[in-house]
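Researcher: Sequence recovery benchmark, item below. Answer with residues only.
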């Protein structure tokens, strides 16, 4: 069986306009939406309160959640705005438009997470737009899904480049994925969204 990727762009580059995906944040009491001058998105350029909190952080762990950094999550809804800084006053640079697409968290600040996609594009996203459900992006065209974590085992399906698949488990050099109604083992070298040595049960 051949599993095809959905048509459409995964992320759109934007100027300063806000989209409806963040209206729920405003309704929840966030600051009113404004456009601010561009700011750098490195941790060194965050507000001083963040700098003081970093001294309490453990190496390789998020200052807010204590979870490992980097780590992978997925986009929860239809779209997610990625901003230049951790707040609604910062300009939107990207809008992720693929539900379930994997994203890598590289930093935390209060209710915001700095994320990037497979190409390294991204910014700061409010945590409510992210899901802990683990997915991967197929990075090899016609990637083979095997019956077992062994290249010599039966090929049960093939996945096109750009397919988003749900992770069922990972071990060693292989991950068992679910996509298009099919389940099978795919080599980690053919996917993005999992660390090389990561084990998922």
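Model:
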């Amino acid at each position: 069986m051949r599993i095809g990727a959905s048509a459409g762009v995964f992320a759109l580059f934007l100027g300063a306009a806000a989209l409806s995906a963040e209206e729920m944040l405003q309704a929840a009491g966030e600051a009113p939406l404004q456009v601010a001058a561009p700011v750098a998105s490195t941790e060194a350029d965050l507000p001083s309160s963040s700098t003081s909190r970093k001294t309490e952080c453990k190496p390789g762990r998020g200052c807010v959640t204590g979870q490992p950094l980097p780590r992978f999550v997925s986009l929860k809804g239809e779209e997610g705005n990625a901003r230049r800084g951790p707040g609604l006053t910062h300009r939107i640079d990207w809008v992720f438009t693929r539900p379930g697409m994997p994203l890598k968290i590289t930093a935390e600040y209060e209710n915001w997470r700095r994320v990037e996609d497979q190409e390294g594009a991204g910014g700061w996203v409010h945590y409510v737009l992210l899901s802990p459900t683990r997915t991967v992006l197929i990075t090899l065209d016609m990637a083979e899904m095997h019956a077992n974590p062994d290249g010599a085992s039966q090929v049960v399906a093939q996945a096109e480049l750009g397919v988003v698949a749900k992770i069922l488990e990972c071990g060693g050099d292989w991950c068992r994925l679910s996509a298009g109604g099919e389940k099978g083992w795919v080599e980690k070298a053919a996917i993005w969204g999992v660390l090389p040595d990561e084990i998922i049960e």
